[in-house]
Specification:
alpha+beta, OB fold (Dihydrolipoamide Acetyltransferase, E2P), 6-stranded antiparallel beta sheet, membrane, hydrolase, serine-type D-Ala-D-Ala carboxypeptidase activity, Penicillin-binding protein 1A
C-alpha cells in the first residue's frame, strides 16, 4: 500500500524522456582566433561526447565488469543487490551498492539533495523508464558521456584526454581499466594523488574482467604488470592571448550568465594568431628593453649560502614556489667568476651566463639615474641571489628582470572595427589589469589631431599661420617642449613638431561649443571632458588606449566611424551558430545609395560618415608629415612605407608615452607608463619608447601587404605656397612648397585669410605637448 502510494506520488515527477534523450552535456567555453587557433578554454571539461560505435568494446566490458555484471539481463533494476542497499538505508547503516548502471545514470540526471529513500525510489522509477525508452547501447553511450571521472573530466572522452592525452580508441587495456576504476570514488582513487590505491583498484577491474572471460590470461598479465602512466594533461593552447581570453569570458558571462562556461560555446574572435603573437612580442621586447636601459634593480631575494649540499635543496624548494613571469625564469646564483655566473633553475639544471648577458646591469638609482657599466659579475650579483634569467635572440641565457614599467598595444581594422591584436600588459598572470581597456591616462599630443581636424572643418587650412609665442599670464607661463618659440608657423608644421602654444591658441579660438561636439564624432565621450579647460587641447583629459585607437580609425578610413569589436561569431555545442557579428562597414561607393528602409542584405550596414572626406585627407597628409619630418621619423627610416601616418604623445614629466599610427588596413596604438604614475625618465619621450614598439609590431604585421593610403578626394587641390606666409607662391619663388587644400579654401596671391591670431589669447599647463 505504501509502495503503491509512493509510486503514484513520485511517478508524475519523473523527467520526460527528452530530458535525458537530448540531455545538454556540459562543455567548456572555448575561445579561438580568426584562423581557428585555440586561445583559451574555461569551465568544466566534458568535451567531445562520443558515439557508442566509437567506444572500444574492452572499455565497455571493463565498465560492466566493474559496475554492473548483469547489465544485459536486467530491466534497469537488480532486485537482489537493491534489496541489500534498501535494507541498509532503513536500518541506518547504508552500505552502498545496489545501483545498476541505469540507476547510476538516473541519479546523474536528477534527484540531487533529496532524502536517501526518496532519491533511491525515484532512481528505480526513472531507471525502469529509461530502460523502456532507450536500448542498452544508448544507455551505455549516455552513461559514458555524462559520468564524472575526476578533477574536471566529465565523460570518457574528457577523461582519456585529461589523464592520457588520447582518444578512447587509443587507450590501452590497462588505461581503460584505470579510468573505469575511478568511477566509485574519482577523487580518492585518482592516480595523480595516490598511485598505490589507484593501482589496487585498477587491478581489481582487470581481475574481474578475467573472471568474466572478457580478457585472456595473457592480456591480464600484461595489463596487470603495466605501471601507471596517467598524467595531468591540459588543452593545448595555440595562441597566447590571455587578455583577449578574459575580455571574451567577461562578455560571454554578461550574455549567458553561468551557462557561458558550461554550455559548449565556441567563440571565434577577430584576432589573427600571427598578428597577435607579433603584438605580444613587440610589447614584451619594448618593455624589457626600456627596463634594461634604466639599470638593474637587484635580486628578488637573497638566501645566505651555508656552503653545504643543503643549499641546493633549499634553493630548489624556493624555486618550486616561484612562478615564471613572461619568459623570465627564477634562478639562484650558485657560483660567480670574474665575467660569468652559474645559476640553478627550478628543474635542477645549472646554467652558465656569460658576460654578454650580464654587462647591461648598471645599478639602478632612479628612473633618470644609474651607475656606470659594471666591470665584473661580482659587482652585479652575489651567491644566493634569487634572480631572473631568460634567453636572448640568439637563444643564450642572460640575466634579466621583470619590468617595473608596463603598457599596452591594440590594433584595429579601420574598415570594420575588428580588433586584430591586443596586448593588455607585460604578463596577464602577474597583473590581469587590461591597460588597453582599463587604463585611463593622459594622451598628451596624441589627442591633438582631433583638435586640428575641428579647425580644418571650420575654415582653417594646413597652411594657416598661428603664432608660436609665449602667453602673457600672471599665474604661470606655458611652454613648448624644449622651451623654444618659433613665432608664426603653419598648422601642419605645428602638428608635425607638436607645438603646445599653437594648440592652445587654436582651442581658444574655436571654443568648447565647437570642439566638444566635434571630438564626439570620433567616438569620444563629450560628457567626460571638462569645460572651459584649455589643457584639453594638449591632451590633459585621460583616455583609454582603446578609445584613442578607435578614434584614429576615423582618419585611417577616410572619415567614417566604426565600433571596435572582438567577437566575430559564437557557436554552441547544442544549438549551432547562435551569434554573428554585423559590424558597420566602410563603403564609400555604397554610402550615397544606402537606404535603410529598403535594405537588400540585412547583414550589411554601412558605417556613418562623421567627418568630411576632404578634412580626413588633409589630416592624413599632416599626420604623414609627423612620420617624414617629425617625432616619427624613425618609422620612415626603419619601415620605409609611404602609407604610414600617426602622432606621438608625451605627458607631464614624461609620465605617459604614446604613439598612434595607421595605414588603410590597420590602426595601432601603443601606450607605455607605470601603473602608479611616475616619470619614465627625464630623457624618455614617446619617440624613444613607444615608437620602437610600434615599429617592431607594424613592420611584421604589414609585411607583404600592399601600400594602402587614402586616395585624394575630388574636392582637394594641391597648391604651391610660401610656407612662411601661407600665400600662393610666385612662379619663381625660392623655398616654396606644395600643400593640399579644400578647393574652396585654397590661398590666392593676395589672400589675407591667414592673418595671425592674437598671441595673448590663451593659457595652459606648460608640460603637455
Amino acid at each position: 500500500m505504501i509502495s503503491t502510494s509512493a509510486y503514484l506520488y513520485l511517478s508524475p515527477k519523473l523527467p520526460p524522456a527528452e530530458d535525458y534523450r537530448n540531455v545538454r552535456l556540459v562543455n567548456p567555453l572555448r575561445i579561438y582566433s580568426a584562423d581557428d587557433k585555440l586561445i583559451a578554454e574555461f569551465g568544466e571539461v566534458r568535451r567531445d561526447p562520443v558515439k557508442y560505435n566509437d567506444i572500444p568494446q574492452l572499455l565497455v566490458d571493463a565498465l560492466i565488469a566493474s559496475e554492473d555484471t548483469r547489465f544485459y539481463q536486467h530491466n534497469g533494476v537488480d532486485l537482489k543487490a537493491l534489496g541489500r542497499s534498501v535494507l541498509g538505508i532503513l536500518s541506518g547503516n547504508p552500505s552502498g551498492g545496489g545501483s545498476t548502471l541505469t540507476m547510476q545514470l538516473a541519479k546523474n540526471i536528477s534527484f540531487e539533495g533529496e532524502s536517501p529513500y526518496s532519491r533511491k525510489f525515484k532512481e528505480i522509477l526513472l531507471a525502469l523508464k529509461i530502460e523502456r525508452e532507450l536500448n542498452k547501447e544508448e544507455i551505455l553511450e549516455l552513461y559514458l558521456n555524462r559520468i564524472f571521472f575526476g578533477i574536471s573530466a566529465y565523460g570518457v572522452s574528457a577523461a582519456s584526454s585529461q589523464f592520457y592525452n588520447k582518444t578512447p580508441n587509443e587507450l590501452s587495456l590497462s588505461e581503460m581499466a584505470m579510468l573505469i576504476a575511478l568511477l566509485p570514488a574519482p577523487n580518492t582513487i585518482n592516480p595523480l594523488r595516490s598511485e598505490q590505491r589507484a593501482l589496487t583498484y585498477r587491478n581489481r577491474v582487470l581481475r574481474r574482467m578475467l573472471e568474466l572471460s572478457m580478457i585472456t590470461q595473457s592480456q591480464f598479465n600484461e595489463a596487470n604488470d603495466t605501471p601507471l602512466t596517467a598524467q595531468r594533461y591540459g588543452v593545448e593552447i595555440e595562441v597566447e592571448a590571455p587578455y583577449i581570453a578574459e575580455m571574451v569570458r567577461l562578455d560571454m558571462e554578461a550574455r549567458y550568465g553561468s551557462l557561458a562556461i558550461t554550455d559548449g560555446f565556441e567563440v571565434y574572435t577577430t584576432v589573427n594568431s600571427e598578428t597577435q603573437a607579433q603584438a605580444s612580442q613587440a610589447l614584451t621586447d619594448g618593455l624589457e628593453n626600456y627596463d634594461r636601459n634604466h639599470g638593474y634593480r637587484g635580486p628578488e631575494n637573497h638566501m645566505r649560502p651555508s656552503n653545504s649540499d643543503d643549499d641546493v635543496d633549499m634553493w630548489l624548494s624556493i624555486l618550486a614556489r616561484t612562478v615564471t613571469i613572461g619568459d623570465q625564469e627564477p634562478a639562484f646564483v650558485q657560483q660567480i667568476s670574474e665575467r660569468s655566473l652559474l645559476a640553478l633553475l627550478k628543474t635542477g639544471e645549472s646554467i652558465t651566463i656569460e658576460w654578454d648577458g650580464i654587462r647591461w646591469a648598471k645599478q639602478f638609482i632612479n628612473n633618470s639615474t644609474w651607475t656606470s657599466s659594471p666591470r665584473t659579475a661580482g659587482e652585479v650579483v652575489d651567491v644566493g641571489d634569487l634572480i631572473r634569467v631568460s634567453r636572448n635572440s640568439e637563444n643564450r641565457w642572460m640575466l634579466s628582470q621583470v619590468p617595473a614599467v608596463n603598457g599596452s598595444l591594440v590594433s584595429i581594422n579601420p574598415n570594420n572595427g575588428a580588433i586584430l591584436a591586443l596586448a593588455g600588459g607585460y604578463d596577464f598572470y602577474q597583473s590581469n589589469f587590461n591597460r588597453v581597456t582599463q587604463a585611463r591616462r593622459q594622451p598628451g599630443s596624441n589627442f591633438k589631431p582631433f583638435l586640428y581636424a575641428a579647425a580644418l572643418e571650420n575654415g582653417y587650412t594646413a597652411a594657416s599661420l598661428i603664432n608660436d609665442a609665449p602667453l602673457d599670464r600672471s599665474d604661470y607661463r606655458p611652454e613648448n617642449f624644449g622651451g623654444e618659440f618659433l613665432g608664426p608657423i603653419s598648422l601642419k608644421y605645428a602638428l608635425t613638431n607638436s607645438k603646445n602654444l599653437v594648440s592652445l591658441r587654436l582651442y581658444d579660438a574655436l571654443g568648447d561649443d565647437l570642439v566638444m561636439p566635434y571630438i564626439a564624432r570620433f567616438g569620444l565621450n563629450e560628457a567626460e571632458f571638462p569645460r572651459n579647460d584649455l589643457t584639453v587641447a594638449i591632451g590633459s583629459h585621460a583616455l583609454t588606449p582603446m578609445a584613442v585607437a578607435s578614434a584614429y580609425t576615423v582618419f585611417a578610413n577616410g572619415g567614417y566611424q566604426v565600433q571596435p569589436y572582438l567577437i566575430e561569431r559564437i557557436e554552441n555545442f547544442n544549438d549551432g551558430n547562435v551569434y554573428q557579428a554585423q559590424p558597420a562597414l566602410v563603403c564609400q561607393a555604397c554610402e550615397a545609395s544606402f537606404d535603410p528602409e529598403n535594405q537588400q542584405d540585412p547583414s550589411f550596414y554601412p558605417a556613418p560618415r562623421v567627418i568630411d572626406e576632404d578634412v580626413a585627407y588633409i589630416m592624413n597628409t599632416m599626420l604623414r608629415s609627423v612620420i617624414t619630418n617629425g617625432s616619427g621619423r624613425r618609422i620612415n627610416r626603419e619601415i620605409g612605407r609611404s602609407d604610414l601616418a600617426g602622432k606621438t604623445g608625451t605627458t607631464n614629466d614624461n609620465f605617459d608615452l604614446w604613439f598612434s599610427g595607421f595605414n588603410g588596413d590597420m590602426v595601432t596604438t601603443v601606450y607605455i607608463g607605470f601603473d602608479s604614475p611616475q616619470t619614465l625618465g627625464r630623457d624618455e619621450q614617446a619617440a624613444t619608447v613607444a615608437v620602437p614598439i610600434w615599429i617592431d609590431f607594424m613592420e611584421d604585421a604589414l609585411n607583404g601587404m600592399p601600400i594602402n593610403s587614402m586616395a585624394q578626394p575630388d574636392g582637394i587641390v594641391t597648391v604651391r605656397i610660401n610656407p612662411e606666409t601661407g600665400f600662393r607662391a610666385q612662379p619663381n619663388e625660392e623655398g616654396a612648397i606644395f600643400e593640399v587644400f579644400r578647393e574652396e579654401s585654397q590661398p590666392l596671391e593676395a589672400d589675407n585669410a591667414n592673418a595671425l591670431n592674437d598671441p595673448n589669447s590663451l593659457e595652459d599647463e606648460n608640460d603637455l605637448f
